[in-house]
Amino acid sequence: MSNESNMRRVTAIRNGTVIDHIPAGSALRVLELLNIGQGTSVPVSLVMNVPSKKKGAKDIVKVEDRELTQAELDRLALVAEGASVAIIRAYTVAEKLEITLGDEITDVVRCTFSNCITQNSREPLPHRLRVLSKDPLQIRCHYCGRPQDLNELVQNVI
Amino acid sequence: MTGLITMADLTNEDIVEVLDAAERLLPVARGDAQMPLLSGRILGNLFFEPSTRTRMSFETAMKRLGGDVVNLGDVSTSSVVKGETLFDTIQMVDGYTDIIAMRHPRQGAARYAQDAARVPILNGGDGAGHHPTQTMLDLFTIRQAHGRLDGLDVVLAGDLRYGRTVHSLSHALARFDCRLVLASPELLRMPPEIVEDLRASGASVVETTDLYGSLDGADVVYMTRIQKERFADEDEYIKVAGAYKLHAKHLGEVRQDMIVMHPLPRVDEIHPSVDETRHARYFEQAFNGVVTRMALLCRLLGVDVPGGEA
After folding, report:
1. Which residue of B lies nearest to A115 if distances are taken between CA atoms?
2. pLDDT in tens, A93-149
3. Which residues of B touch A117 (CB under 8 A)?
4. More exposed terminus of chain A, fewer Cβ within 10 Å: N or C?
5. Where would I find the H helices in B81-131?
6. Non-local CB neighbours of B104 within 8 Å, separated by 6+ positions
7. Element spanning B52, H or E
């Protein structure tokens, strides 16, 4: 199926952000990491498991009337590394951005280990996780050194 | 300045240098010579968890070198009980002292403190995490007995899951190409990520529940206490308490120069009959805590110990 027909599943947006090539099945986590939920008033479209030439299947998220910042997009690296982002203004692509996973994830999620020093929410230093390997994804807490399970980690969004 | 949080903070060359400096400091540690290398310096002892040997040996080490010590005191009467964060406590002590030794019940606390502090932090135990200064005294004791650290056969036994001393020690021994036998009850096996790290570094690691069958051929047998305080559920503790009780009768066939070590305190995992054998080293090991901590204090404070090669 062509890219055009994928895009036709949801209408083109006038202004806002399109996140394309999200790994299939991860769109809901993307919304969670962007804190898009009940309190969000702008229109949000979500497409899951559509065919993709590059990946076989993918998800797409469109957020209208909101331009996501690079800092917000960096939060997505845990679940949507490699996704492509387009900032749309007046129906045209004004900027293209990428989501890349760096060596460290800072203040996005909290360590999952119950006895880590960072469990005290009043401790002021940033939550830091080190990315040891991207494929397979291996993440450890900078402080306690415990390996992190991605499924548990995304429940700990800050 | 960086401190000592895990053994990854020291290279093998650093370790050997610290052990060499410790050897030169032996007469000072025994009180036979004076060397006020740290005169005018202050150590902050921050023990948020009970400690006898580690806290006292840090204090002794600092005082033997002419330095001074301030203590956090009893946690139940300090500002910690009023809800002060570790960050704030460290900010305060950082201003009062030149170096901090700390123990904390939460894992990662020492790394956190180092990120918050200007002065070096010496990790004296963080939850079930690491205890690198114990490892340094363990390595000192092993080198004293065998004349080397490389290529030894070492059995680590007991509570390998929560025992922070064996977490740090296993990392260090693996780097010196020692062959490791990890003997523990199933419930108290070494955390999988540590075994993974040890194997990734090329170490030979065997996991077993059979301690007594592992003694033959060992150069070092390192016993640990099953730590009741680490179990949330007492029934789980009762299942494994007393799993190993090393007795002199188990040592009939072992190598003549094999040494039995223990970070102390022991409960009943080493029977007093072992104390009388040539293999027992745990009391010397406890004494070595002073001399190795003296060498570490000097190193982290940037003070050379005289007598080394120029």
Report:
1. B106
2. 999 998 988 999 999 999 999 999 999 999 999 999 999 998 889 999 999 999 999
3. 86, 104, 106-109, 111-112, 126
4. N
5. 86-96, 109-116
6. A117, B46, B48, B49, B86, B110, B113, B125, B126, B127
7. none
SS3 at position B88: helix
Could you please report the per-residue DSSP string of A32-76? HHTT-STT--S-EEEEEEEEETTTEEEEEEEEET----HHHHHTT
Spatial strand order of the sheet with B121-126 comes to: B68-71, B42-47, B99-104, B121-126
From A123, A142, A147, residue closest to B111, measured CB to CB: A142
Cis previous bond, B263, omega within 30 = no
Do A117 and B112 lie within an 8 Å CB cutoff?
Answer: yes
Q: Among B85, B105, B108, whose Cβ lies nearest the Cβ of A144?
A: B108
Question: Which of the following is catalytic: B131, B164, B250, B262?
Answer: B131
Which domains does chain B carry?
7-130+287-300 (3.40.50.1370), 132-283 (3.40.50.1370)
The chain-wide mean pLDDT, for chain A, equals 90
- Chain B: residues touching A (Cβ < 8 Å): 6, 83, 85-87, 104-109, 111-112, 115-116, 126-129, 193
pTM over 0.95: no
Strands B153-157 and B179-183: parallel
CA of A148: which chain B residue's CA is closest?
B193
Return the H-helix or E-strand segment holding A89: strand A84-89
* Domains in chain A: ranges and CATH: 3-98 (3.30.70.140), 104-156 (2.30.30.20)
How many Cα atoms occupy the beta-carbon half-sphere of B194 within 13 Å? Answer: 29
H or E element that contains B27: helix B26-29
What is the per-residue pLDDT across B83-116, written as a single tens digit (0 to 9) for each? 889 999 999 999 999 999 999 999 999 999 999 9
- Residue type for A74, please? D
DSSP tag of B280: B
Chain segment B109-152, per-residue pLDDT in tens: 999 999 999 999 999 999 999 999 999 999 999 999 999 999 99
pLDDT tens digit sequence for B21-62: 999 999 999 999 999 999 999 999 999 988 888 999 999 999
Going along chain B, which residue ranges are E strands? 42-47, 68-71, 99-104, 121-126, 153-157, 179-183, 204-208, 220-223, 259-261
